[in-house]
Design a protein that fits this description.
The chain is mostly helical. It has helices at 2-14, 24-27, 37-55, 62-69, 73-79, 83-107, 112-138, 141-144, 155-170, 174-184, 186-197, 202-228.
Length: 249
């Protein structure tokens, strides 16, 4: 019985606490979760956007991006063969999201004022949130590829869409509505630049931009009606039967 007690005590002293026991399952590496290619690509771009916005373009490298994305550098290269292509893809995604939000806002508008305000609000809101990232990406001409302004992405189709609305609702022919729309397209971009550089009330800037856009189109409508629209006559001014002859001649 003494021997059994001694053996039991030895077992107690020698046995390791549960938290010290290292099992094979606890040392095995957790396998990396496989993601669909488009999801993995988006995740890499998300991390690139975070780094550029916080530290600048020069702070981004394929090695850092892979490390902070939780993937290997070679996998990053598999999706983006060069840093330039990665930055271009990131800028294109940002501009595409901006344009998509603007057009979605435009579709919900019931009046022209609502349309202008919705598009302007969507633009300024996006710039307030993501403007620093877009500005840093566009500062490199090789990355920007001609997109000198956030409004340049898919500009032609957006201008045509809005010009048709202006032509139909203001009675302005398309050959005037197109340049008028294209020029007014620059106002939200100018407002966004001002928002980046100055401490200004967001609502006041939005109201100012909307007023300027609508005011320019109302002035154009009046100018066209007075100076450019061809006169409409119900009948020509000719001598009618029964009129007395004039004695002025």
């Amino acid at each position: 019985m003494q021997l059994q007690l001694h053996s039991s005590l030895c077992d107690t002293w020698i046995s390791q606490p549960e938290w010290l026991v290292v099992t094979k399952s606890s040392t095995a590496k957790t396998p990396r979760r496989r993601l669909a290619p488009e999801v993995r690509r988006a995740a890499i771009l998300d991390e690139a956007a975070r780094i550029v916005a916080s530290d600048g373009v020069s702070a981004l490298s394929m090695e850092r991006l892979g490390r902070e994305s939780g993937v290997s550098k070679s996998l990053v290269y598999a999706y983006f063969p060069s840093m330039t292509e990665l930055l271009r893809a990131l800028l294109k995604r940002e501009l595409k999201r901006l344009r998509k939000q603007q057009m979605a806002a435009a579709e919900k508008a019931r009046t022209f004022e609502e349309l202008v305000r919705a598009v302007t609000h969507a633009y300024l809101s996006y710039i307030a949130e993501r403007g620093l990232l877009i500005h840093r990406l566009q500062s490199d001409p090789i990355v920007a590829e001609g997109h000198g302004s956030p409004t340049d992405y898919s500009r032609n189709s957006a201008v045509t869409y809005l010009a048709e609305i202006i032509s139909d609702n203001f009675g302005i022919p398309m050959d005037l509505a197109m340049p008028a729309t294209d020029i007014s397209f620059g106002l939200p971009a100018a407002a966004g630049d001002y928002l980046d550089r100055n401490d200004i009330d967001f609502k006041m800037l939005e109201d100012l931009t909307v007023t300027m856009i609508i005011g320019s189109l109302v002035a154009l409508e009046e100018n066209y009606a007075v100076k450019h629209k061809e006169l409409v006559r119900r009948r020509p001014l000719t001598k009618r039967s029964g009129d007395k002859p004039s004695h002025d001649t």
